[in-house]
Prior knowledge:
- Residues 1-27 form the HTH lysR-type domain.
- Keywords: DNA-binding, Transcription, Transcription regulation.
- By secondary structure, this protein is of the alpha/beta class.
- It has helices at residues 2-12, 28-56, 66-73, 77-83, 164-171, 188-196, 210-215, 243-263, and strands spanning 17-20, 23-26, 60-64, 89-93, 107-112, 120-133, 155-158, 183-185, 201-205, 219-220, 226-236.
- The protein folds into 2 domains: 2-56, Arc Repressor Mutant, subunit A, CATH 1.10.10.10; 59-264, D-Maltodextrin-Binding Protein, domain 2 (3-Layer(aba) Sandwich).
- It has 8 helices and 11 strands.
- The strands form 2 sheets. Strands 3, 4, 5, 6, 7, 8, 9, 10 and 11 form a 9-stranded mixed β-sheet that branches.
- The longest helix is centred in the first third of the chain and has 29 residues, at 28-56.
- The mean pLDDT is 88.
Amino acid sequence: MSRQISLLEDYLGVQFFHRDRTGVRLTEAGERYLEDIGPAFERIAMATRKLTSSRRDEHLRLRVYSTFAAKWLMRRMADFQHRQPDVRLRIMTAVAPVDFSRETVDASIQFGDGTWPGVESTFLFGDELRAVCNPGLLPSLGRKPLPRDVLAFRLIHSHYRSADWPDWLKSAGIDPPQESAPFMLPNSLLAYQAASDGLGIAIAQTRMVEAELSSGTLVYFSDHVLRRPLGYYLVTPPRSPHEGKLARLRAWLLEEISLRDRQA
């Protein structure tokens, strides 16, 4: 390696290292050069790791949100494995938008408007919000609840979806309450569980609480629905060594969503 560095210094006419009896350290020019070319070497290293990883691991690495995995994906996984026995999914969870140049991920399911740069996105389903609660809360009103009646109960908030309650209330013409200490939970998964346990009313993405609504552990508090111009998307890189498997995953997801829509 030292020979190659010496050749590079001779070629460029620049000294990159101070060499003495105490060791080797970068010169000022060497530090500037490293700062400029370092990111390129990082990308080369990442590409090499991804290439060697794909040779060793035939799993299709899918990154999703924890709530999406627990409330939508997991209960459908048996069907996917039955239909696509040769596609082995490895599920990972994260919140930030995927960066395929830095992460060893083949696909991601993300929430937003679908306009992320440098990726391909396939719309799965939209953002539909409704207030949900344990059915035991409703008899206390003595009548059919109106949207504004949510203010008579504790509102359960999700940290990662902190805009949901304000947006829903605004769409219903209700001023948000001045909560000095709102009941805030880390994610929607815990918020839905808290509502199911009778701790208050949660604002839910209807797709994420299908099982609870079917079993009766959760019910809609009122008829008011908020639909926003956002949704869940399957996000993939422009090029992938797993194009065939990604196409089958995409087709299966769209089929599952279409089936639910026909049954609704």
